[in-house]
Amino acid sequence: MAGGVRSGAGGNGDADANTADDAALDSDAGLRATAGAYADLIRVPNLFTAPPDVLLGASLVAADADSALPRSISVTSVAGLAVASVLLYAGGTTLNDAFDAPVDARERPERPIPSGRIPRQTAFALGVGLLLVAVGVAFAVAGVPAAVAAGLVAVAIGCYDGLLKGTAAGFLTMGATRGLNVVLGTTAAGAAVLELPPVALAVPAIVIVYIAAVTFMAARETDGGNRGAVTVAAVGSVAAVGGLAWYLAAVDPAPGAAGVALAFAVAFCWWVGRPLRAAYADPIPATVGPAVGACVLGLILFDAAVAAAAGIGWGIAAGAFLVPAAGLSRVFDVT
Q1: Which terminal Cβ of the chain has fewer Cβ within 10 Å, N or C?
Q2: How many CA atoms lie within 13 A of 306 on its CB side?
Q3: How far apart, in whole angstroms, are the C-alpha atoms of residue 280 and residue 54?
Q4: pLDDT score of 226
């Protein structure tokens, strides 16, 4: 009799344990699903395209041999500004989806907000919070000039996401967020951007043109047969390569650095050229989407090519971000 009681108690214990295990598994699955939704919202692969902009900006100061600015640039400041740029990007993509929720409900119902995985109001609050924290981080690591630059990026993000998207001004504003991100990198050496020569100041402008062209194509990603949008992105890519060549000729880097810059430039042409050609040949969402993603990630290679003019280390440090970006792009959406 006693043995039977013990056996029954053990059975109930096993059932309770199984229930607890199932609940724990359900909880873990829920946490993973929530984490995946937020990773999708902020477009995790794209976050790795932001720090190379900062490294590029800092390299513009390092490459300016005629400047009276100090030649040593704080690694801590560059790293902190890179973190700020990641937060700015995450805030921008979050607000982008929050504003686009009604459109995504029709065109991309699988996105985190229209699918119900993340409330729209939560996305708005998160996006604004990330932008504010980014400005605070920039101020903490590099002072007022950095905070001003980060603030300008945040304003440009807000204007694009909330007011100007889909317009000519909107494309340029989106490009400006990236150009200003490069300027943010120059503040690692104080108010460096005010001391840079015209050839260096032209680099953020080149980035603006390239990203504006890519944004124009992205805005028509879901349209069919829009070969003109692909052409605009291709022209923007060619302009970026031309600007890079002009910058390298003006700076005249050491042979080793020039070789690394050339290698990254060739990689950039290959990286964006193949998907753009495929999209031009058959401009449907299935080809244009990957072309947009390739052009976004390709900015890393462009940044690395320009940064290499200041030294091989600068180029490699910027280019290394392509590895996690490309790897994560296989799991999460880029566009």
Answers
A1: N
A2: 32
A3: 32
A4: 84
Angle between helix 198-219 and 285-307 (nearest 10): 170
Residue 166 tokens read as 């889909």
Task: Using DSSP, state whether 283 is helix, strand or coil.
Answer: coil
- Would you state the structure tokens that stand for residue 37, as one six-digit string? 């939704």
Q: What is the CATH number of domain 44-328?
A: 1.10.357.140
Nearest to 56 by CA among 238, 187, 235, 214: 187
Domain boundaries, the chain: 44-328
Going from the C-alpha of 188 to that of each of 99, 128, 185, 246, the distances in angstroms are 33, 24, 6, 25
Cα 130 to Cα 53: distance, rounded to the nearest angstrom? 18
What's the rounded Cα separation, in Å, for the pair 71 and 62?
Answer: 6
Q: How far apart are CA 277 and CA 288, in angstroms?
A: 10
| Structure confidence by residue, pLDDT tens digits, 194-225 | 778 888 999 999 999 999 999 999 988 777 77
Cα–Cα distance for residue pair 84/147, rounded to 1 Å? 10
Quote the tokens at residue 74.
């704080």
Element (H, E) at 141: helix 120-159
Tokens of 230: 């692909």
Identity of the residue numbered 324: P
For 37-74, the pLDDT digits (tens) are 999 999 999 999 999 999 999 999 988 755 554 456 88
